[in-house]
Amino acid sequence: MKRALLALCLGLLLATSAHAEKLPRLVLAGPYAAVSNPLIHMVESGALADVADKVEFVAWRDPDQLRVLALEGGGDVIAMPTNVAANLYNRGVKLKLLNVSAWGMLWMVSRDATLKTLADFKGKEIAMPFRADMPDIVFSLLAHQQGLDVKRDFKLRYVASPLDAMQLLITRRVDHALLAEPALSMALRKTHSFPVSLIAPELHRSVDLQQEWGRLFQREARIPQAGITLRGALADNPELGRRIATVYARSLQWCLDNAAACGEMVARHVDLLTPEAVADSIAVSRLESVAAVEARPELEFFFGHLLASTPAVVGGKLPGDDFYFTADAPLTTGQLRQ
Predict the structure, then answer these.
(1) Are 201 and 96 within one domain?
(2) Residue 58 half-sphere exposure, CB side, CA atoms within 13 Å?
(3) Same domain, 190 and 212
(4) Considering its fold, how many domains does the chain have in total?
(5) Can you state the angle between helices 259-269 and 238-257, rounded to 10 degrees?
(6) What is the pLDDT of residue 231?
């Protein structure tokens, strides 16, 4: 009897302790892109319900909104381009890169089916989202690597986001654009769903920038484009960081295995996207959750080329060891309140 009572008291004590360590709120943030799909699934599936009383997803539309989230503490777990993560870290923002999960979602799209290389776009107007950020910097690197001058050889029309570039395409205000998924799949879907009088002729997937990367740099055809960061006190919590990494990887696999259901889920959170376009984008995007420490060689190759061309986009130097998340000293979630 005494032993049973002791066990009951111990169980109540552990339950009370675990509840006391729960966070009141955990904010997951990301763009309207495939890197955010697992974050949305983590919220909808309740995978972190034991970690925080309220877990929510917040979308950022452009790099300016992203930087506000990171600098002002609006997000705890934030999906972002890897160069932005390096830049923020080098500027003193407390964050760690947890993983790289988006390895290529960039394509040229055109009304001209004969355009097969970046050189074929010389002299043409191209809608380009996110000036001086992804995908602009990747386009510039690839152009430079094959002897093209971005300012001289192309007419770049900068817009705020891939979705804005998509709108220019489907309303016939441009004939070519560099798009990230799922905006490209959305554009292809939309051009087949409206009356012909309202849209331009059929759009075509043109240059796969990931394939160009592999060809020009003699590497695997993938770019460490975006991943998940831990911000603020969360960056000092290896135990919870490891948990988030595991849950994210499982949610990413769910999205890959259930593209149609993932599309329905994402469309409920993002009015501008349709379930079909999201499912299409999953099928063509290179998505794999790789721990940041394992991705470091590919990241430093990428960052090295950025430092040689536009060093400001990564903060002027390679990020140090502390940029890469490791989980060698377990801490408790209670420390997040400190």
Answers:
(1) no
(2) 20
(3) yes
(4) 2
(5) 110
(6) 96
Would you state the structure tokens that stand for residue 333, as one six-digit string?
């979630």
Alpha-carbon distance of 302 to 312, in angstroms, equals: 14
Contact 241, 234 (CB under 8 A): yes
Is it the case that residue 197 has pLDDT exceeding 90? no
Q: Do the beta carbons of residue 268 and residue 73 sit within 8 Å?
A: no
Dihedral of CA atoms 271, 273, 278, 279 in degrees, nearest 10, equals: 90
- Among the candidates 170, 186, 217, a domain finishes at 217
Amino acid letter for position 165: A
Say if 73 falls within a structural domain.
Answer: yes
> How many other CB atoms are there within 10 angstroms of residue 269's CB atom?
16
Residue 176: which domain range? 106-217
What gap in Å lies between CA 115 and CA 94, rounded to an integer?
A: 44
Tally the C-alpha atoms within 13 A of residue 159's C-alpha that lie toward its C-beta.
21
| Residues with Cβ within 8 Å of residue 334, at least 6 apart in sequence | 20, 21
Render pLDDT for 115-170 as a digit per residue (tens, 0 to 9).
999 999 999 999 999 888 888 999 999 999 999 999 999 999 999 888 888 889 88
> Of the candidates 187, 217, 247, which is a domain's last residue?
217
10-20 burial: b if 16+ Cβ within 10 Å, else e: eeeeeeeeeee
d(CA 48, CA 52) in angstroms, rounded, equals 7
- Round to whole Å and give the CA distance between 42 and 45: 5
15 inside domain: no
Give, in degrees to the nearest 5, the angle at Cα 266 between 39 and 257: 75
Angle formed by the axes of helices 209-217 and 136-145, nearest 10°: 40
Q: In the chain, what's the furthest Cα-to-Cα distance?
A: 86
